[in-house]
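User: Let's play a game. I give you a shape written as tokens, and you guess the letters that built it. Ready? Here's round one.
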């Protein structure tokens, strides 16, 4: 006489199909991790390419032979970055300062009401000559002889891989690279520091 094994014992010891169940549970996590790694490394590679292109363009920008055509240097950076991220938007900002210590500093002002912030009507030194008080005293452009230049390039692009949707991140990414160098003494610098009260 044959003895019947209860169904639950037969199912408990049956290992057929276990691999499919394990794969179904682990595959989404593995794919998400893999796509995340690809997305991150692609951004990291783009950042490295941008850093290198900005450093080279900034060094070239400080030489007298390139002072007249800064747009050509920007185009070189744009071309290098777009070989990695085609269709990306690349923008540039140049700010000139008198010394390294002034980079990013605000224009000096008289704090009449002692609230430690600039208010309309307070007198200020218009270092960059634009007629208004600025939290950054830098003058737009590449400056003149011996000026210190902060050169910044930013690249904006859409993520290629769909991992941003799964992780709740924005689709558009902006990376930037900056460098600070001093111009060679190729011509006379000009500073405009009139005191204004507005």
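Assistant: Ready! My guess for every position:
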């Amino acid at each position: 006489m044959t003895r019947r094994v209860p169904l639950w014992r037969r199912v408990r010891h049956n290992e057929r199909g276990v691999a499919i169940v394990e794969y179904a549970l682990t595959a989404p996590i593995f794919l998400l991790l893999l796509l995340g790694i690809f997305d991150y490394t692609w951004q990291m590679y783009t950042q490295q390419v941008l850093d290198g292109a900005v450093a080279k363009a900034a060094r070239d920008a400080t030489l007298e032979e390139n002072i007249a055509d800064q747009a050509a240097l920007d185009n070189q950076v744009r071309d290098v970055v777009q070989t990695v991220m085609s269709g990306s938007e690349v923008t540039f900002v140049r700010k000139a300062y008198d010394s390294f210590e002034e980079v990013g500093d605000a224009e000096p002002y008289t704090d009449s009401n002692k609230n430690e912030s600039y208010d309309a009507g307070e007198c200020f030194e218009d270092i960059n000559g634009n007629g208004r008080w600025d939290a950054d005293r830098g003058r737009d452009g590449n400056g003149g002889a011996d000026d210190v230049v902060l050169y910044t390039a930013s690249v904006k692009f859409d993520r290629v891989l769909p991992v941003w949707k799964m992780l709740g991140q924005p689709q558009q990414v902006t990376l930037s690279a900056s460098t600070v160098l001093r111009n060679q003494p190729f011509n006379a610098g000009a500073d405009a520091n009139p005191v204004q009260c507005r």
